[in-house]
Design a protein that fits this description.
The structure holds three protein chains of three kinds. Chain A contains ten helices and eight strands. Chain A is an alpha/beta fold. Chain A has an eight-stranded mixed β-sheet, sandwiched between helices. In chain A, helix 7 links the parallel strand 4 (123-126) and strand 5 (148-154). The longest helix of chain A has 20 residues, at 194-213. Chain B is mainly β. In chain B, a hairpin with a 2-residue loop joins strand 3 and strand 4. Chain B has one domain (2-61): Beta-grasp domain (Ubiquitin-like (UB roll), Roll). Chain C has a single domain (7-80), classed as TusA-like domain (Translation Initiation Factor IF3, 2-Layer Sandwich). Helices cover 27% and strands 29% of the residues of chain C. Chain C has helices at residues 22-32, 48-59, and strands at residues 11-14, 39-45, 63-69, 74-80. In chain C, strands 1-2-4-3 form a four-stranded mixed β-sheet, with helices on one face. In chain C, helix 1 crosses helix 2 (48-59). Classes of the chains: A alpha/beta, B mainly beta, C alpha+beta. Chains in contact: A-B, A-C. The A-B interface holds A 37, 39-42, 69, 73, 126-131, 134, 151-154, 157-159, 173-176, 179, 183-184, 186-187, 190, 192, 197, 223, 234, 236-239, 241, 269 and B 6-7, 29, 31-32, 34, 36, 39-41, 59, 61-68.
């Protein structure tokens, strides 16, 4: 399929790059990325991926836009308060790039729907705000051999890693099991600088783009940490854990499952 | 002996265990920390027994649960 | 002598209907569609495109063969698609 002059203009800054070119832009057009969580991380990631011309973007989130979201969730605006986040996100994405197909899933992602959800996509981006969800997404992606980007942010800190099936360690290799509810502070309790979502969510989008166009080195086998107060990025090597419960040599997790964590942790952030 | 802790070269007394280092470094939420030494994970039940050696590179991985 | 060499043109593209930097982008995309060794004829406008497009394509590693004045404010540029690295 040939590009129209309008498409050539829209994507000119991509196509000019030797690493992208027409070939890479077509790969982006053909790609399907699922973003779980339309919040601090998901917002910038969804905007950049839509702008980049990723052909199909799925966005899953059960919540409605709340005033307290707007300090960092730049995909939503003040008039969107009360609207479903997935609808508000879709509007913003299609306002930037009407060519993008946006699939919305207004639901919590659980063991009951996660496998079906990720099956339709080439790359998954974890933008959730709780450990049960992060472990669920990891397990589902490992079990269905989907590459995904994990990220977490809190206060002035953020981190991310990329799982590539058959290559790197998974999130569970590094962190094994979720900490008990409230043992580790969440953004709601501890706060977060809005721009942190911008930094880390954009890096997740960058990993998705690199994976799709097949260029560069992914954060596979390493955890990138960012300390905004020190303005310091560190890339920490992540080994595989042979005893990992989901990707190790003798896995004990053979199907996605939900952690029964305090329900308050799974409710919409208010 | 010298250890590289989270990228910084520091001087410590010989015979230091991972558990003692966690204490000295005042690691946040120490009961939920993941530790790697020379790019290998250390099982949390070995923190007390694992003695660090001169030149070891230690990393602490923290749970970061936020995102929305 | 070299001027008289005739080249077999495999594909043509008209970039007179777009402006910088889309001129180069359109030419680059048309070249990427070709196989290595094939020749693209590019119709481009006088002025900025004639100055920049051949240079940019050369920078991309392609071989600029010939630039001919069409005497109507446009030029025809012949470029050979080179192997990808």
């Amino acid at each position: 399929m040939a590009f129209s002059n309008e498409q050539l203009e829209r994507y000119s800054r991509h196509i000019i790059l030797k690493e992208v070119g027409a070939k890479g832009q077509k790969k982006l057009q053909a790609a399907k990325v699922l973003i779980i969580g339309a919040g601090g991380l998901g917002a910038p990631a969804a905007l950049y991926l839509a702008a980049a011309g990723v052909g199909t973007i799925g966005i899953a989130d059960a919540d409605a836009v709340d005033l307290s979201n707007l300090q960092r969730q730049v995909i939503h605006a003040t008039p969107d308060i009360g609207k479903a986040k997935v609808c508000s996100a879709k509007q913003s994405m299609q306002a930037i790039n009407p060519e993008v197909q946006v699939n919305t899933y207004q639901c919590f992602v659980t063991a009951a729907n996660v496998m079906e959800l990720v099956a339709d996509y080439d790359f998954v981006l974890d933008g959730t705000d709780n450990f049960p969800a992060k472990f669920l997404i990891n397990d589902a992606c490992v079990l269905s051999a989907k590459p995904f980007s994990h990220a977490g942010i809190i206060r002035f800190q953020g981190q991310l890693m990329t799982y590539v099936p058959g290559q790197g360690p998974c999130y569970r290799c590094a962190f094994q099991n979720p900490p008990p509810a409230d043992a580790v502070p969440t953004c709601r309790q501890a706060g977060v600088i809005g721009a942190m979502g911008g930094v880390i969510g954009s890096l997740q989008a960058m990993e998705a783009v690199k994976y799709i166009i097949g260029q560069g080195d992914l954060l596979c086998g390493s955890l990138l940490t960012f300390d905004a107060l020190k303005m310091e990025f560190r890339k920490i090597k992540l080994p595989r854990r042979d005893t990992c419960a989901v990707c190790g040599s003798q896995p004990t997790i053979l199907a996605a499952f939900d952690y029964k964590q305090a329900a308050c942790d799974l409710k919409p952030a208010t | 002996m010298k250890l590289t802790v989270a990228g910084n070269l520091k001087e410590f007394a010989d015979g230091l265990t991972v558990a003692k280092l966690i204490e000295l470094e005042q690691v946040e939420t120490p009961e939920y920390i993941t530790v790697s030494v020379n790019d290998e994970f250390i099982a949390s039940d070995s923190f007390e027994s694992h003695v660090l050696a001169d030149g070891d590179a230690v990393e602490f991985l923290y749970f970061m649960g936020g995102g929305r | 002598m070299a001027d008289r060499v005739e080249f077999a043109i495999d594909e043509t593209v008209d970039i007179t209907d777009v402006v910088c930097p889309v001129t180069f982008v359109k030419a680059k995309v048309a070249l990427e569609e070709l196989d290595a060794g094939q020749i693209l004829a590019i119709r481009l406008s006088d002025g900025e495109p004639v100055v920049n497009v051949p240079r940019s394509l050369k920078d991309e590693g392609h071989q600029v063969l010939k630039l001919a004045d069409n005497c109507d404010g446009t030029y025809t540029l012949l470029v050979r698609r080179m192997e990808e690295d």
